[in-house]
Every structure is written in C-alpha cells, then in structure tokens.
Design a protein that fits this description.
By secondary structure, the chain is an alpha+beta fold. The chain contains nine helices and four strands, in the order H-H-E-H-E-H-E-H-E-H-H-H-H. The longest helix is centred in the middle third of the chain and has 29 residues.
C-alpha cells in the first residue's frame, strides 16, 4: 500500500459528528495519535500541554454528560448559534482532552518597562493559545492518518464546562481543556467542508486589497450563511444547488477570486458581538 501524501492527510481531515457505534481501537493507535500532538511547535519550546485520553466507557459516558449540559447552555444562552447535540460522543472510540497549563506563559517574552507590559501580556496569551492550537491540529491530523475521524470541541474551555471536566478527570481547575477531540470511525463518507478558494486567501509579497473581505460580507456570513457553511459537505459553494438563493449578491465574493473589486480597505470596526440580524439568526437575543 502506498503511503498517502501529507497533503492528502490534511485534505482528509474534517470535523465529523457521526460515528459507528460499538467500535474500538487499541491503545497503540491512540498513543501514535497523541504523539503527533507532542511534536507540535510551542513558544520557547515549553510544551504547555497535557493530554488526557478517555477510552474507558464509563468515563466516556461521564464526559459525554458534561458536554450534553454544555450544549444545552448554548441553546439557552447563545441564541442563534447552530449548536450541535453532543449525543454522538457516546459512539467515540476515545476522547482526547488537550489541557493548557498557563504557568508556562512566564517563559515567554516579558516587558521590562511599564509601557510595554500590556503589549507583551497580550502577545504571550497569543503565543500560549497558538501553541495549544498547533497541538490540537497535530492530533487531528494524526487521527486522519490512522483512517479515523474527529472534531474539535472548543466548549471545554468555557469556565463552567471546564470546572465539571476538572472535577471529573482530576486535573487542576486553573488548567483548561482548550481542545476536546472526539475520535471515532466515520458512519459515512464525508465530502470536504467548505473552504474559501485559494485565490482569495493567497497573497504574494504584500496584502492584496481586492482580496479583502468587507465588513458587510462578515455580517452576512454571521447572520445568514454561517449555519449552512459550517456543516454542508461540499468544498466549494459552487456545488450548492441553492447557491443563487443562499448567496444572492454575495455570490462572487464567496466563489470567485476577488472579494473586494473596488480595493478599498475599511477602518477597524467593533466585531466583538454580532451586528446584524439575518434569516438564520432571528432567534438571537440582542
């Protein structure tokens, strides 16, 4: 059997939430997967992570119960977000939690003058989170290389969910499960999820203003398109049979090479909260 190209492994990775029940894998497979996370890059090589692999059925069921409560909180308190029921966790072969240990941020660059304290504090938080993201991605690629599939549940990083997980699994509550990765055997073949065209995202030597995504495009995606783009099993929106209806005037901006024909860049705006009510998020409370 020919070894797959690494690029093929990357393209095969996707977030899947339908697993075949009653399946299992050996710990040797799970160790190979987690070892991929161990080789991720990290700021100052501090390796600011620990990995908890849950393969005991009773513990898996208890972790599932934590995420069922987390999903209900999304329904109750994050109106308009397309929450997914977490019952599929019961069919995983294992669940990997990637814990972030914040003590290691002390090893990152520290300000020596007060005026740069905030700048380096924010930068060190970014280094910490990027390091953990690299480990999470490596694990997901390791899953794909083994012919399995996974998802990334960021909800473990929410304070209430993390407190429950810490109590259940015994880690210090001041650590945080930034990534929870359910692993399983896919119940059906999955096509590639939506990806922006490469021509939109690739800039040569300098930022190309005609590839800038306008504020209104972000608003449209959040308020109207997001629930569909998140979960449809098509790499290109050009394949959507209802593309004209879904994209409307934004068709070229989502399927073409140019998102901003006029080339004008906009000043910074506040996107800390959604700004527009659209057809997909009418239930959201503002």
């Amino acid at each position: 059997m020919t070894e797959p190209l690494f690029q093929d492994v990357i393209r095969r990775r996707r977030s899947v939430r339908k697993f075949e029940p009653g399946r299992s894998v050996g710990r040797d497979v799970l160790q190979r997967i987690v070892d991929c996370g161990r080789w991720a890059p990290s700021g100052a090589n501090v390796q600011c992570w620990d990995f908890i692999v849950v393969d005991d059925p009773a513990t898996r069921d208890a972790v599932t119960a934590v995420f069922l409560r987390q999903a209900q909180r999304l329904v109750d308190h994050a109106k308009g977000f397309p929450a997914v029921k977490k019952t599929y966790l019961a069919n995983t072969v294992a669940i990997v939690l990637v814990l972030g240990d914040p003590r290691w941020k002390a090893c990152f660059p520290q300000a020596t003058t007060p005026e740069f304290d905030a700048e380096y504090r924010d930068n060190n938080e970014a280094i910490f989170l990027c390091s953990l993201g690299a480990a999470i991605q490596n694990i997901q690629l390791g899953v794909a290389a083994e012919g399995l599939t996974s998802a990334w549940l960021s909800g473990g990083g929410e304070d209430e969910t993390n407190r429950e997980l810490a109590e259940l699994l015994g880690y210090p509550a001041w650590m945080k499960a930034y990534g929870t990765i359910p692993i399983g055997v896919p119940a059906a073949d999955q096509n590639r999820r939506f990806r922006r065209p490469l021509a939109q995202t690739l800039h040569w030597n300098r930022y190309e203003p005609r590839q800038y995504r306008q504020h209104a495009q972000v608003d449209f995606y959040e308020s109207t398109l997001r629930p569909f783009a998140m979960y449809r099993d098509e790499e290109s929106m050009e394949s959507w049979p209802d593309r004209a209806e879904m994209l409307g005037e934004w068709n070229d901006a989502f399927v073409g090479a140019v998102t901003n024909p006029g080339g004008e860049l906009e000043p910074e705006a506040d996107f800390s909260r959604p700004r527009v009510i659209g057809q997909a998020t009418k239930r959201r409370k503002t």
